[in-house]
TrEMBL record, chain A:
Lineage: Bacteria, Bacillati, Actinomycetota, Actinomycetes, Streptosporangiales
Keyword Transferase attached: no
TM stretches of this protein: 12-38, 44-69, 179-198, 223-247, 363-382, 388-407
Organism field: Microbispora rosea
Keywords, comma-separated and alphabetical: Membrane, Transmembrane, Transmembrane helix
Domain named YdbS-like PH: residues: 70-147, 415-484
Official protein name in the record: Putative membrane protein
UniProt xrefs under Pfam families: bPH_2
Entry keyword annotation includes Lipoprotein: no
From TrEMBL, chain B:
UniProt source species: Microbispora rosea
Name of this chain's protein: YdbS-like PH domain-containing protein
Coiled coil stretches, renumbered: none
Record key words, sorted: Membrane, Transmembrane, Transmembrane helix
Transmembrane regions: 21-43, 49-67
Domain YdbS-like PH: 73-149
Superkingdom as given in the UniProt entry: Bacteria
Length: 512, 162
């Protein structure tokens, strides 16, 4: 390969100037808008708010500009060099053997300008990797090709693009899209920030004509009818938002097993994402069934793997499937883990009754707290709230108790071949299988209630995913035996047997 | 019939830790009642309100300062064997951690200003997992020895780099 021998150098695209200048333009536009709305008048508060925003944006834009002017990359035979920064100079050099994957992504703004982000995963800790943010699409594709080619000459990893397809988007899955609860929250958050922005600009949205009109109409129908309509509207808006998010996130989704032991997820409509996971770093999978989705027989599958970056990045990048039918999620899990039955909840060891008591206690405490909060407001605002508090408490207690029973029924754990399986959760039911050789320590926790009732929570720490995966509320014997069976000889030196006469005060006894 | 249990780790932390935890608890729990007390003393018309607020915030604060350090001292323990680090911590909510030496990646010493005042040091043992094992309130010399031992051991035992 001759092309890898010739050095290749380059810089970010000049189009980034537009972005850098665009950032401070936003508060200016807001200021003009406020002048327009307020009829040419302004006041100190608006000036201060927008002025400080403008300054912040100026600094952000300046940094962007500095980055654009100083970032260089340089690919030689031995390494890829990256230098950037004006005040804080940084220089990275990566040898070919360290490059695990090269992904090209673009967010909507970048798409508009024909720019992309090239991300080089070097498999280091704490999200080790390099990012070149703001290359032209052509430059990025060229650089990616060269890096991959260059790596192949370095060692014999072969990355062919279209090997083993595991899963591909099915239009029918769109029916699960409205069932993610984030939609409603998103609508509320958006409404909140619009209100705040207008408020900061001294415009009270409640006094706008359209809103006043709406309030008057709302007042003319019975309260329950109005509330019902408002709730329905909110849910409809939320479902629409969820659907749009689903389309944006998951259009063009495919999961492939590329050669060289890499699982690659591609997805995204406006912002294309491509995530590569090395199978050797995969420690297991997690099946998530949040409540509306579960009722419709759907589930999501996440990878439990290291090398996806820090906690937030891991959250964003770990998805192996969108919300899909449960059977499909299990099939994909089977393909990824090579054994399908691992995720089966049937056959898991149930947890003791004390775990149920703990959940019911929690449910009742939650119901009492909500009722008490409402009743407390009532002492201050009037009798109606006290009544509302009573009714809420009486309704909430049995509902939450049902959830508590469900949570207990979900609890389970077991050893399955090379894996440790655990299930928990009711609002979002999670089933996790974790490779036993991926467990690098134990974390046993006990609350006062758990110490009194002889329970413990056994956490398996691992390099992958959330870092700790917990088997919740097992009896002490169960938990310690499980730990010993899963990873022999790790916990055993610290476990002793005692004659069982006072189950309550176990474990604390040694502390005198 | 016999039952299993986790035995407490062999070594206690330094008993000066009680002082350290008390100081920490005081810094955390006392400013609020103090503020209320000053208001109580300085604004006569609101006397009754601030008296109650002072009492309400002071009683749990004092209880916390009085109980937490001793309780913690009974629980916090640590032990290092040829194969693993074993540490217990917490008071109401308690935690036992085991990490095999073969998986230890870095060993750090942390010494906050208060801890320095009491001549204590904290050792944090990090693996590839995101949560580190912390042993706080060690006597300074013991802490240094522990770090030296762990650092030498982690080079010896062949490990995985996850």
């Amino acid at each position: 390969m001759t092309s890898t021998a010739t050095p290749h150098r380059g810089r970010l695209s000049g189009r980034l100037i537009v972005v850098s200048l665009g950032v401070p333009a936003a508060p200016l536009a807001l200021f003009l808008l406020s002048l327009l709305v307020a009829g040419g008048e302004t006041n100190l508060q608006v000036l201060i708010t927008l002025g400080s925003l403008f300054l912040t944006c100026l600094v952000v834009g300046g940094f962007g500009l500095a980055r654009l002017l100083t970032t260089r990359y340089h690919l030689t035979g031995e390494r890829l060099e990256l230098s950037s920064g004006l005040l804080f100079r940084s220089r990275h050099a990566v040898p070919p053997a360290r490059v695990r994957s090269v992904d090209v992504t673009a967010n909507p703004l970048q798409r508009l300008l024909g720019l992309t982000t090239l991300r080089i995963d070097t498999g280091g800790q704490g999200g080790g990797g390099l990012k070149l943010d703001g290359l032209t699409a052509a430059d990025a594709a060229e650089l990616r090709r060269r890096i991959l080619q260059w790596r192949e000459t370095g060692h014999a990893l072969n990355v062919t693009e279209d090997a083993g397809l595991i899963c591909e988007l099915d239009r029918a899955w769109l029916r699960y899209a409205p069932l993610t609860v984030w939609g409603v929250g998103g609508v509320l958050a958006a409404a909140g920030s619009v209100y705040r922005t207008l408020h900061e600009m001294k415009i009270d949205p409640l006094e706008l004509g359209a809103v006043q009109d709406l309030v008057r109409r709302f007042g003319s129908v019975p309260l329950w009818y109005g509330l019902l309509l408002a709730t329905l509207a909110l849910i409809a808006l939320g479902a629409a938002c969820s659907t749009l998010t689903f389309i944006e996130n998951w259009s063009g989704y495919e999961l492939r097993r590329a050669e060289g032991g890499v699982l690659r997820v591609r997805r995204g409509l406006l912002a294309t994402r491509s995530v590569s996971m090395e199978e050797s770093r995969l420690r297991g999978v997690e099946l998530v069934e949040p409540i509306p989705l579960r009722w419709a027989g759907g589930a999501k599958l996440n990878a439990v793997t290291s090398g996806l970056g820090d906690r937030d990045e891991n959250r964003n990048r770990r998805a192996l499937t969108p919300p899909v039918p449960r059977a499909e999620a299990l099939r994909v899990a089977g393909q990824v883990l090579t054994e399908e039955w691992l995720l089966n909840r049937a056959g898991l060891t149930p947890h003791p009754r004390a775990a149920l008591r703990r959940r019911i206690n929690r449910a009742l405490i939650a119901a009492v707290l909500v009722a008490a909060a409402l009743a407390g407001l009532g002492l201050w605002l009037g009798q109606a709230f006290v009544t509302a508090g009573w009714i809420t408490g009486v309704l909430l207690a049995p509902i939450l108790t049902v959830f508590a029973c469900d949570a207990h029924r979900t609890l389970g754990h077991g050893l399955r071949g090379h894996h440790l399986a655990m299930a928990y959760g009711t609002f979002a039911r999670r089933t996790v299988v974790l490779r036993r050789d991926g467990i690098i320590g134990w974390m046993v926790t006990r609350s006062p209630f758990q110490r009194r009732t002889g329970l413990l929570t056994l956490g398996a720490t691992t390099a992958a995913g959330d870092g700790v995966y917990k088997v919740r509320d097992v009896s002490v014997d169960q938990g310690l035996e499980l730990a010993e069976a899963a990873v022999p000889r790790l916990l055993a030196p610290f476990v002793e047997s005692v004659a069982s006469n006072s189950p309550g005060r176990r474990m604390r006894a040694g502390a005198r | 019939m016999s039952d299993l249990r986790l035995r407490p780790p062999r070594n206690r932390v330094a008993c000066r830790s009680i002082g350290w935890w008390s100081a920490q608890a005081a810094v955390f729990a006392l400013p609020l009642p103090l503020t209320f007390a000053i208001l109580w003393a300085s604004i006569p018309p609101t006397r009754e309100l601030f008296m109650w607020l002072t009492l309400i915030s002071l009683v749990p604060g004092l209880l916390y300062v009085a109980v937490m350090p001793y309780w913690r001292y009974r629980v916090h323990r640590w032990e290092v064997t040829g194969e693993a680090v074993y540490a217990a911590s917490g008071w109401l909510w308690q935690q036992w951690r085991v990490v095999p030496l073969s998986r230890v990646q870095t060993v750090d010493t942390l010494r906050g200003p208060l801890q320095q005042l009491f001549g204590l040091s904290g050792v944090s043992v990090t693996t590839a997992s995101s949560s580190a094992v912390r042993i706080n309130g060690l006597d300074r010399e013991i802490g240094d020895e522990l770090v030296a031992y762990l650092t030498s051991r982690t080079h010896v035992v062949p490990g995985d780099n996850a």
